[in-house]
Amino acid sequence: MTTNANLNLSEHPVLAHKLSILRSDQTTPADFRRVLREMTFNLGYEATTTLQTRPIQLTTPMTQTEGEKLSSSVALIPIMRAGLGMVDPMLELLPMSDVYHIGMYRSKGSLLPVQYYNKLPRDKSADVAYVLDPMIATAGTICAVVNILKKWGAKKIHVVSVLASKKGLETLMSTHPDVTVTVTAIDDVLTEDGMISPGLGDAGNRLYKTPTIDQDDDEKLVSPSKRKRTLST
């Protein structure tokens, strides 16, 4: 992939080790949740290096000095379901953050994103919005959420993911070149049904030990009155 200033591809050996645990089909849901939490905490440190601060005066046990305090207003935007597993470690880093949930899923036939839940407030936005989703596959869902956040008024958008497909990442960064992405690894293969290979499998199912639902489309799980199709561009 062409080098992009807005792409932060972590090559930390500890994260590479933990990613292998997430990939394994022998990893239990409890361990999957734990390792995703650990990886998110470390990715979060890398993703927050550009947050703005302001000087403050403080007193240490020895003397008075000048310190720094974060001045950027931050919103965490987990994409349900899988993004929920990344919220707590980000809140440990940024406890002052607001958390606004967006529910999206991909229509099985078209792979287009469908929005079924949105709790963005109308009366406020954020200096920086961190979009949390373990994987960037086709990027349709991520692009749709970025569109929503731009209309909402977020000044800067930063996507934090564990894994991305090469095609999905290229789609996201060409569609939204102003968005920053922090990710651990990039897989070359994206299957026809929108799955990353070797990938992680279905992160939501693995997080919550959810069995595969034998239905033609996830739309059957959502009330027709709540369905709202959101285009990725």
Automatic annotation (TrEMBL):
GO MF entries: GTP binding; uracil phosphoribosyltransferase activity
Alphabetic keyword roster: Allosteric enzyme, Glycosyltransferase, GTP-binding, Nucleotide-binding, Transferase
CDD domains named among the record's database cross-references: PRTases_typeI
GO cellular-component term (any): cytoplasm
Origin: domain of life: Eukaryota
GO BP of this protein: uracil salvage
Stretch list, region Disordered: 201-233
InterPro entries for this protein: PRTase-like, PRTase_dom, UPRT, UPRTase/APRTase
Enzyme Commission no: 2.4.2.9
Domain Phosphoribosyltransferase: 10-210
Gene3D superfamilies registered for this protein in UniProt: 3.40.50.2020
Cofactor: Mg(2+)
Pathway as given in its UniProt record: Pyrimidine metabolism; UMP biosynthesis via salvage pathway; UMP from uracil: step 1/1
Family: Belongs to the UPRTase family.
PANTHER family given in the database record: ADENINE PHOSPHORIBOSYLTRANSFERASE, URACIL PHOSPHORIBOSYLTRANSFERASE, CHLOROPLASTIC
Protein known as: uracil phosphoribosyltransferase
Protein's organism: Triparma laevis f. longispina
Lineage: Eukaryota, Sar, Stramenopiles, Ochrophyta, Bolidophyceae
